[in-house]
Specification:
The chain has 425 residues and is of the alpha/beta class. The chain has helices at residues 2-22, 56-75, 101-113, 126-139, 152-158, 170-184, 197-213, 232-241, 252-264, 281-286, 289-292, 310-320, 327-346, 351-360; strands at residues 43-49, 79-81, 86-88, 90-96, 119-120, 143-145, 163-165, 188-194, 217-224, 245-249, 271-274, 296-299, 362-365, 368-373, 376-377, 381-388, 391-399, 406-407. It is globular.
Length: 425
């Protein structure tokens, strides 16, 4: 009997256990693992640049300045990005856009969609900067521009939030030109310009400010197609008006053409001013010291004015050899360093967050402060250089943003050669 009771008890326990096993089990929710940041070994930055075509002279220098910055940053371990907790070296993906805006626009889309770059650097030239605006707005990736001067009205028309301009507006640089012209007392001025966005805008404002201030007469005001190979007809027209000053709002290739044909036609104004292009290595190599003597050019920096930039400039000279301190070099560096500081401040490679930092912060650079208002750096300088004894020297420095442009007396400059010597025979 006892054995039967034990057996019965065991059977009941077994039944109870089987019933419990059939009941739905209460399970604890599986915790969602914290998403770890994918491993990141570098920052991939893309751009197109004019290594051929009309902008090759300045575009090559801009590209070389980019390379010097990249090597300089990487020699210090890279750019610190807080979300990855470490410094990341910079690598480049770039293409030659042949100075063609449509090609550049296509290349920037390729960089984003196919090459999967993290961030972007700027191309060369105003008209190419403008061409890529729809692309960077579409994909929301900021570009810190450099060799591009755009009118405020045009910036407002573009309604861009992702293109930032470090170069002064045409209103600002044109006012600097006018203050120079007025200061030295010229009375008859010929204004020539390449027919592109940047140069047309500079010439337009240049003429307007001269007429508003009524200190001189504009005796010639005429444009020419970018890529022209002969401007003798236009220059003979200039010669016939006997101007005190000839101001040419130029690009690299036409700066060389105009200078060559001015010399050939023996046009000798007291003041000869070139825009961008008259301070490139190609221009320097084309003419001897006596031919360059006294020619005035537009710039935004100079190593004599920016001693903190000497480290980069010396690295450039060591890597590539002699090169005048051109606008393309300085502007490339200021754009790279500004982007670098924005990445560090944002602590991320998220382009929208970097854009927000660019739009709100003030950045300290070896070229002075950078502060963007309405997408334009309102802290930039306009530097007037002159060729003296084979070297570019700063003769005037202007600060401020139109309409508040004034002489920056805190910078040490050299005395201007005026009038310009006649062309050597």
């Amino acid at each position: 009997m006892k054995n039967k009771l034990v057996l019965l008890a065991l059977i009941m326990v077994a039944v109870l256990l089987f019933g419990c096993l059939q009941q739905p089990q209460q399970t604890q929710p599986t915790p969602t693992p914290t998403a770890a940041k994918p491993a990141k070994e570098s920052i991939k930055i893309g751009f197109s640049i004019s290594l051929s075509g009309s902008g090759a002279g300045a575009g090559t220098e801009q590209y070389r300045a980019y390379e010097v910055w990249r090597e300089w940053v990487n020699s210090n371990g890279g750019i610190y990005v807080e979300e990855y907790g470490k410094k990341l070296p910079v690598e480049f993906v770039y293409y030659d856009d042949a100075s063609e805006p449509a090609r550049a626009k296509s290349l920037y889309e390729k960089l984003i969609l196919e090459d999967k770059v993290d961030l972007l650097l700027a191309p060369w030239g105003t008209f190419i900067h403008l061409a890529i605006v729809p692309v960077i707005e579409k994909y929301k990736i900021p570009v810190v521009g450099n060799t591009a001067g755009v009118e405020l009205s045009k910036i407002n028309e573009l309604q861009t939030k992702y293109e930032f301009f470090t170069y002064p507006t045409p209103e600002t640089t044109a006012m600097a030109y006018v203050l120079l012209l007025e200061n030295i007392g010229v009375k008859r001025i010929a204004i020539l310009y390449a027919q592109t966005d940047f140069t047309v805008a500079n010439a337009k404002w240049n003429k307007k400010f001269i007429e508003d201030r009524k200190f001189a007469d504009v005796v010639v005001y005429e444009g020419y197609p970018l890529g022209s190979t002969d401007l003798k007809g236009l220059l003979l027209k200039v010669k016939g008006t006997d101007p005190d000053a000839v101001v040419v709002h130029s690009y690299p290739a036409d700066a060389i053409l105009v200078t060559s044909q001015m010399k050939e036609l023996d046009i000798n104004p007291n003041l000869f001013v070139l825009g961008v292009g008259g301070q490139t290595l190609a221009f320097d190599q084309k003419f001897d010291k006596k031919t360059k003597e006294g020619i005035v050019v537009l710039n935004t920096w100079h190593p004599d004015l920016h001693p903190e930039a000497a480290e980069l400039y010396n690295l450039y000279l060591k890597k590539y050899g002699h090169n005048p301190p051109s606008h393309a070099i300085g502007l490339a560096w200021i754009s790279c360093i500004t982007l670098q500081k924005a990445i560090e401040k944002a602590g991320t490679l998220d382009p929208v967050k970097i854009r927000d930092v660019l739009a709100t912060e003030t950045f300290q650079t070896p070229f002075g402060e950078v502060k963007f208002e309405n997408q334009v750096n309102v802290k930039g300088l306009t530097v007037i250089d002159q060729w003296q004894n084979g070297e570019l020297k700063p003769i005037y420095v202007f600060k401020g943003f139109y309409p508040n442009v004034e002489l920056a007396k805190e910078f040490k400059t050299v005395e201007m050669v005026y009038p310009k010597p006649s062309w050597p025979k």
